[in-house]
Amino acid sequence: MTQSSSIKSWFDSGKPWVWLNAGAVSISLVMVVGLLLLIAVRGLSHFWPADIMELTYLEPGQEAVTLVGEKVDHETVLAPRLAASGVILPEGQLSGGRSLIKIGNRDYFGLDFRWINDPWIGEIRYPEGLMAIERREWGNFYGYLVNVKQQGDPVADGDNAWDEFQARLQRSNDLVAEIKNIEKTEIGKINHGLEQLRLAERRLQLDNIAKGTLPYQEIDEERKLFDARYAELRKQLDELYKALSRDQVTVRIADGREVNLPLAKIVQVYKPNAMSTADKLGQYFHEVWNFVSGEPREANTEGGIFPAIFGTVMMVMIMSILVTPFGVVAAVYLKEYATQGPIIRLIRIAVNNLAGVPSIVYGVFGLGFFVYFVGGNIDEIFFQAKLPAPTFGSPGLLWASLTLAILTVPVVIVATEEGLSRIPRAIREGSLALGATKAETLWRTVLPMAAPAMMTGLILAVARAAGEVAPLMMVGVVKLAPTLAVDNIAPYLHLDRQFMHLGFHIYDVGFQSPNVEAARPLVYATAFLLVLIIVVLNLAAIGIRNRLRETYKASES
User: Fold this and answer.
1) How far is Cα 455 from Cα 536, in angstroms, rounded to an integer?
2) Is the torsion defined by CA of 83, 85, 86, 90 positive or negative?
3) What angle do the packed helices 397-421 and 342-354 form, to 10 degrees?
4) 0.90 cut: is pTM over it?
5) pLDDT for 151-198, tens place per residue?
6) Which of 51, 209, 247, 486 is most buried, with most CB under 10 Å away?
7) Are residues 95 and 83 in contact, defined by beta-carbon separation less than 8 angstroms?
8) 204: buried, middle or exposed (CB in 10 Å: 19+, 13-18, 0-12)?
């Protein structure tokens, strides 16, 4: 009886529910941390320069072949499944292993990856001479360096070939960078200038100004200057391309063939089997930096993701600038000015319900209202010379940011209202008693004290908006954006351009890639980077909120 009474009193005290909540929070934290660790390990391990194996593989009834590549995965398979592929295990053995090897050389072997069964694997070697070559097309290439050629004639072989290869590869990459700068920057400016002249000429035609007059002559003179500049750059590019095609290397692949590779198609080369741990660590950070700062290649399964990082951060920043004033003004009106009644209660219910609307609905609304209606009218008024080609009448960065601002504005409204309601009435009355108007009281006293709550709403808005994908597919995001939204051409920030986004990049690489095995680690790496960016943005907002909270501690009383 005493024991049951003590148990009843323990339950009545509420301690079991405290422990239950603590356990639920702990389990949730463990699951979140575990998921992040899984993503980090699967993604970041991809950049480690793995050793390259050379092995003898003998399938029953066939001749032995030599395979070269990186071991990517290993799994245990039940005997019936192995038997279906021709592998017969010893009697009594219920399962066997098989390994996934990245053999590369897709343009010569037809595939990047190959599953091999462990019972058929012979001798495994790790020769120090094996090279891993990262190419601009067709993925990785594995083989032995035979010689270095200039205009088809060997200039170095044997022990001297490696150093010569490295030196000429550096020259080749410098030439590629110079060509890219001319094509994207210099010729890009010329194309922009010619387009502006075409639009100026079109505006003259719309204004019914006769051809042959002074404005047309000025346009023709400027066009001649651009044409002359383009001819100079074209000549320079021809010389650079000729210099770029000078060098090649001969590489012997797994089946014994010797293949010529132009250095213009090679990004980097290294010998992982001959590298020390320190060398591999340096190569690892080099690969991570290339992933973060480079541009995508090979249907987004190679190269970097900088355009997607830039697009995600830029969109979130513009969305934050747009959503904060709208959310704050709406909350101030509902809390401070509106007469509380059934209409205001209905508005609050509508605001709360908006937070539960599926995001794809916002995408449809953004496409119909912002893109077609607002953007189409802007084109009719300000960009008639460009019609029928749309400027703001097509999906772009501005409309994507506005769509996500509409999607997240209920969160900011609710958080700001909560902050306003926590400010004591005595502070408002004291300000009014000292002669301040209601607007001055709001601007100088109430809003600064409610700033931490506004930042809380903005933090929640950023966390949701950064990971949204469905609405962005309709209002601005693309698989591959040719140019960034920011460049050195006026007006420098081009809100009408389409952009890349990390969330859509994950979807595209994970579900639309033709090379699933090559894409899988990039999905993990990109997902980890997206989480990291969201955390950094939120930490910055939390830091600002904490500083504001320390400044206006009175708002907590």
Assistant:
1) 15
2) negative
3) 130
4) no
5) 989 999 877 899 999 999 999 999 999 999 999 889 989 999 999 999
6) 247
7) no
8) middle
